[in-house]
Amino acid sequence: MDSTVVFQTVILGVLLGGQYALLASGLTLYFGVMRVVMLAHASFLVLAAYLAWWFTTSTGLDPMLSMAITVPLFFGLGVVMQRILLSRLRPATLTMMSCLLTLAIALVVEGVLGFLFTGVQRRVQVGYGSAQLNFFGASIPVVKLVSFGLAVFGLAALYFILMKSSFGRSLRATIQHKQAAQLVGINTDRVAGYGFGLGLATAAVGGTALALDATIFPSLHWYWIGPLMAIIVVGGLGSVPGAAIAAMILGIATSVLQIPMGATWAQTVFYLALFATLLFRPQGFFGGRLAQRF
């Protein structure tokens, strides 16, 4: 096997893993704050991609500028969803009922996208769409580097919010132990709403990155939701760093396995990793103390 091909494949796997890490961090926030399994996360990812495509088609500007609209829009939408819909679910059946509710939301988003844009596949046209960067013999598409840059930006912003702000400390306290956070005066209901909005805002950034690098269509979210759920289980439910590590490892593994197995069969690595995690370490391999209580 050509070493240059392997080197290029590993680089592409790192770039893909960064994108997975951003999207999986949002799913981890949902579960950490509210124990909600957010099956609609990938559908909002596709919605953000469509909004980026529509923005570029309408204005001729770079799709990354659309985040000035979509990030605050998705944050507000996440807060509204949590307060109007998810907060009404009964705690005893929250995890199970959240699956059904968010699945219904995903179907609604898919239906609306199909009605507005039809099922025709779309792709954002940018000036650097076909540009390549040569790196030690490897040819790397510029759009993948830009998508990775967006993922790094999103993860860095998320890290700053979680680790350096007072809201982040309140959010981490709520994730670690909700009752203890309430005892020290944290309004956990408000924190849950903002945390849910923050998770959905990551979908706005990730959807923009997806629009740069992929062909989009309304049902694309079914392709994404399985791998993302596998990542948060392998990384450990409630662990953002664990999800990021698992995303990077599985992203590289998927990219490398595409050489001998092809793109379709390489995706099975996510489900094999999920099976191994549930069998040998259900709390996750890279964190997930939260999962040990459920």
From TrEMBL:
Keyword Cell membrane applies: yes
Primary localization: membrane
Membrane topology recorded in Swiss-Prot or TrEMBL: Multi-pass membrane protein
Superkingdom of the source species: Bacteria
InterPro entries listed in its UniProt record: ABC_transp_permease, BCAA_transport_permease
Cellular location(s): Cell membrane
Keywords noted in UniProt: Amino-acid transport, Cell membrane, Membrane, Transmembrane, Transmembrane helix, Transport
Transmembrane segments: 6-29, 36-55, 67-86, 98-120, 140-162, 191-212, 224-250, 262-280
Family indicated by similarity: Belongs to the binding-protein-dependent transport system permease family. LivHM subfamily.
Name of this chain's protein: Branched-chain amino acid ABC transporter permease
Organism listed in the record: Mycolicibacterium goodii (Mycobacterium goodii)
